Amino acid sequence: MTSYIDVPTKTIVTPENKTFAYREIGTNTGVPVIGLIHLSGNLDNWDPTVIDGLAQEHRLILPDYQGVGGSGGKAAKTIQGMAQEIREFIHALGLKQIDLFGFSMGGFVAQEVINQEPTLIRRAMLTGTGPRGGQGIGDVTSISDRSLAKAIFTFTDVKTYLFFTRTANGKNQAARFLKRIKARKTNRDRSIGWNAYRTQLKAINQWSTESAIDFSKLEIPVLVGNGDHDLMVPTKPNSYDLAKAFKNSKLVIYPDAGHAGVFQFNNDFVKQANDFLR
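RE: above sequence
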């Protein structure tokens, strides 16, 4: 099977006249998995080892948000708006039921997709994320700005500071992760623009002030995953609260790991995720 670092980028225009860039990989059997990426992320920010591992058993479809990468339009001003646009993308593909894999801000968007159209979702994996109105989510802007300034000063990728612990192991894992997501050498996706990035930050900040979504009546199975030291979306209480919000959930917390714990422990997460989706 072709690796994620080699699959072509496709585009689709929705009935609402919105152009989405996306990549697709994996088997064509079963319910497809829609992947929703983090703040400022594009198609090249997915860990290829995780995507390739999931694609051994599942069909994955990974879109850019509007206003990001190869997608058209402008970035939505709210998390709910992003979710509505992702639903338009899903329906434009003719899909009747999906599994969701949301990471970080993608987990926020995934929750809103579930809230807006629960019958569309079979199962969901919410990683490096937390519930609407969760503790500390409103600090994402200040944390991101400080880390970005530090990254510029030290000529380091900002994800080194935001996604991993500062232990020796964390620093080593950060370097390995960055090498993996930079492995694609041709037809890389376009980086997010400054205006779209700030729009996403404002959307997250607004979302952090809103009331939690009531998922208590839903039967949707949910896998919640994170590292035990998430700087951006504090693991305690957010990962635990998110797991409690769903009646049918499983919580996986990785040791000495940060926001990108599911990518740091890629082999174990792929096994956990494939078992869950199966």
